[in-house]
């Protein structure tokens, strides 16, 4: 009878092994579902982070464009100031030469310099009016 008892035990062991395998399969499915859910959550988080990064890049781009436009405006204003300064220097030189020519009684030269000064001042006035019309 002893051998029959052992056979029954082996059969029971086989059954228990199959039951364990079935349980492992079921728990493996649960693990996969849990992993799938975790991956899904991670993907959503990554998507949100990417949206935040894109928004940050857009804001940086807008700020950079604003700074570039301000830089261009400052360059334009600087050019205007340099031009005005140069004209002022020229007018001062002409006035000084007019005075020197009058001191030396060279009225023809003084008249030429005076006409030149009038032309420069006239052009400046025209430019101011044109800029005022715009």
Short key terms for the protein model shown above:
mainly alpha; 2 helices
Summarize the helix and strand pattern as letters. Answer: HH
Give the total of domains: 1
Q: Strand portion, in percent?
A: under 5%
**Number of discrete helical segments:** 2
Assign a percent range to the helix content.
Answer: over 70%
Which structural category fits the helices and strands?
mainly alpha
| Strand segment count | 0
Profile the largest sheet.
Answer: none
Low-confidence stretches: none
Radius of gyration, whole Å: 47 Å
Describe the structure.
The chain has 134 residues and is an all-alpha fold. The chain has one domain (11-133). The chain has helices at 2-103, 107-133. The relative contact order is 0.04. The model has no long low-confidence stretch (mean pLDDT 86). Keywords: Coiled coil.
């Amino acid at each position: 009878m002893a051998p029959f008892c052992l056979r029954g035990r082996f059969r029971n062991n086989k059954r228990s092994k199959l039951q364990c395998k079935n349980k492992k399969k079921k728990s493996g499915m649960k693990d996969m579902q849990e992993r799938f859910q975790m991956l899904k959550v991670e993907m959503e988080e990554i998507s949100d982070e990417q949206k935040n990064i894109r928004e940050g890049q857009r804001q940086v781009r807008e700020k950079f464009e604003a700074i570039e436009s301000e830089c261009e405006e400052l360059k334009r204003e600087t050019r205007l100031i340099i031009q005005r300064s140069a004209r002022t220097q020229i007018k001062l030189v002409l006035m000084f030469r007019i005075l020197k020519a009058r001191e030396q009684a060279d009225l023809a030269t003084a008249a030429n310099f005076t006409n030149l000064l009038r032309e420069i001042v006239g052009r400046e006035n025209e430019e101011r009016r044109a800029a005022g019309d715009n």
